[in-house]
Amino acid sequence: MPKRALLSVSDKNGLIELAQRLQAAGFELIATGGTEKALREAKIAVTGVETITEFPECFSGRVKTMHPKIMGGVLFRRNDQVHEQEAQKLGIQPIDLVIVNLYPFAATMRDTTKSRDDVIEQIDIGGPTLLRSAAKNHASVTVICDPNDYAPLLEQIENNGDTTIEFRQQCAAKVFQHTAAYDALITQYLTDGRTTDILLTDGKKLRYGENPHQTGMYYKTDTGGSWKQLQGKELSYLNILDADGAWTTVQDFSEPTVVMVKHANPCGIASDASIDNAFQRAYDADRLSAFGVIIAFNRPCTAAIAKNILDQKMFVEVIIAPAYDKECLELLSQKQNLRLIEAKKQEKKDRPQTLVYRSALGGMLVQDEDHRTVTEADLTCVTTKKPTPQQIQDLLFAWACVKHAKSNAIVFVKDKTTVGIGAGQTSRVDATWIAARRAGEKAQGAVMASDAFFPFSDSVEEAAKHGIVAVIQPGGSVRDAEVFAKAEELGLVMVTTSVRAFWH
After folding, report:
1. What is the DSSP pairing of strand 410-413 with strand 447-450?
2. Cβ atoms within 10 A of the Cβ of 389, count?
């Protein structure tokens, strides 16, 4: 009797080649609705589930595979005489391979054009049941829930005639991870976010944690981004933290932008029409801090940048970019320890609203990621002097920078380049003083951003001493009138956003 494969996929990528090669390997194909239609249109012989069950799909496709002739074919134990006899008596034939990917619940949930009914309809019932059943019976049944596993599946079948028990067990474990994450997301949706689960997978032991005496692990989550390391030493705990901070920051900018991060804080950010120029300006913003730096690009890293890194003898720990020029990779290969990460860039409008988790007091704090963008329309000028168009550009750029510096945070900017950053201070005036010290003469004519309101006017006075000409801040202090009056007295431009940008 030929082996039988059941296919029921919402993601049709790779389906036709998969089916053709399975058929060539001697598998009889069974499929549900849309999958069956796609295979027939490709002139591939397939048996519909209805033919097996002798019962039609019903309730708009909500019920199709939940039938003893399907579930029994997946679940009965092979080499068990009682099960074998019972299957024969009931006319149930074995199903040896189950390939299912679930309804796109997550994508539908995040689509603001979809109604609640649309989202509920994307809760898959038969799919998880099939997957879990096949995974339970992995001693005899192979189960695939991820199109990325088609290639290793076909390699095993075509080379060996069957899959190994080790492969089946790996696939079974992946199924239970996948369905657990799927159910957790549904639970989160139905409880309006009051219930959430974090699924940690693919755990990788790091050399150590934040310090050598601490252990460290990196796990992927069910919402993990798409990235890969191209070269260099293994990533450390702190490398990953800093790379994440740099990559999150650089994706907030639409123009070619480079972000340099040191100890979880940006030390240089620059935008320019040319990514090559943006790189040099970001580096020149604070060369002292950019030693052992992590660099993020929102455009491909070029050969010119690689050459500058080498020529300037920069000590760079990690580079993260959406792509690398071929010559760039060849040049950077001279620095064998330099870690290069290629990450999938997402336009701001396409970035999903993800949750940020932090352990605290034996529990878990959870919040939405700060995706808020402040535009010119959000600004309220509170001084007689109004900002020029160039100042508005720099003020908005400074705001996009300050939200990624640890609070209390102050950022000085000139020509879409940071010239001084003061971050992580216990008083705002200290953060201002540090930013001014970093900036030096470059503070003359620059603008300043504060991630929260000014509790006193001292930071404004300190900034004016160093040549700051315009300030952006949230407003909302009980001393707003005093702060606005001080800006007026000093001849500064001041605008408020009514939005705070703390990052602890």
Report:
1. antiparallel
2. 8
Q: Are strands 28-31 and 4-9 parallel, antiparallel or unpaired?
A: parallel
- Are 259 and 271 in contact by the 8 Å Cβ rule? The answer is no
Contact 337, 318 (CB under 8 A): no
- 8 Å CB contact between 231 and 337: no
Residue 221 contacts residue 231 (beta carbons within 8 Å): no
**Mode of pairing for the β-strands spanning 97-101 and 47-48:** unpaired
Task: Please report, for residues 61, 101, 106, 221, the alpha-carbon distance to residue 122 in angstroms, rounded to integers and kept in the order given.
Answer: 12, 12, 9, 21
The catalytic site residues sit at 136, 263
Q: Is the peptide bond before 308 cis (omega within 30 degrees of 0)?
A: no
Model confidence, pTM: 0.76
pLDDT at 371: 87
Spatial separation of the C-alpha atoms in residues 171 and 131, rounded to whole Å = 10
At residue 348 the predicted structure's pLDDT band, cuts being 50, 70 and 90, is low
The stretches of 122-269 forming alpha helices (DSSP H) are 126-136, 150-160, 165-190, 237-250
What sign for the dihedral angle of Cα 438, 444, 445, 448?
positive
Sign, CA dihedral 277-281-287-289, equals negative
Contact 281, 257 (CB under 8 A): no
The contacts of residue 273 (CB under 8 Å, 6+ apart) are: 255, 256
**Residue that wins the pLDDT comparison between 350 and 426:** 426
CA distance 168 to 233: 32
CA distances from 65 to 43, 70, 75 (A): 23, 6, 13
Closest residue by Cα to residue 280 from 247, 251, 304: 304
Using a 10 angstrom Cβ sphere, with 0-12 exposed, 13-18 middle and 19 or more buried, the burial of residue 75 is: buried
* Structural tokens at position 464: 């004016």
Report the C-alpha gap between 475 and 455 in whole angstroms.
Answer: 10
In sequence order, what are the residues at sequence separation of 6 or more whose Cβ sits closer than 8 angstroms to the Cβ of residue 131? 98, 100, 102, 143, 145, 175, 178, 179
> What angle is formed at CA 243 by the lines to CA 237 and CA 245, rounded to 5 degrees?
105
- Residue-wise pLDDT for 16-66, tens only, equals 999 999 999 999 999 988 899 999 999 999 998 888 888 888 887 788 788
Type of residue numbered 384: T
Count of alpha carbons within 13 angstroms of residue 360, beta-carbon side: 7
